[in-house]
Amino acid sequence: MHLGSTVTMISFWLGTLLPVVYLPVFLTGIDSMSRFSLFLALIAINVVALVAGHNYRNSPPQR
Would I find Membrane among this entry's keywords (predicted)? Predict the structure, then answer.
């Protein structure tokens, strides 16, 4: 496995699973600037991960 494909795989799964982290932020409330900043940082990381991992294929290429 190449480094580029490893980064793509990690980015894909991070982008897929990161929204689970939003739930505790919503449950505790976004009532301060630090929590709002945390929420914006999570969204930014999620967008970057989705863009970096959009070419990920779980199965090997067809021959």
Answer: yes
**CA-CA distance, 26 to 3, in Å (whole number)?**
35
Question: CA 54, CA 12: separation in Å to the nearest integer?
Answer: 6
Structure tokens at 5: 């494909």
Task: Name the amino acid, one letter, at 54.
Answer: H
Residue 60 has a pLDDT of 62
The torsion angle over the Cα atoms of residues 50, 54, 8 and 58, rounded to 10 degrees, is: 120
φ, ψ for residue 32 (rounded to 5)?
-140, 165
Structure tokens at 51: 């863009």
pTM of the model: 0.78
Q: Of all residues in the chain, what percent carry a pLDDT higher than 70?
A: 90
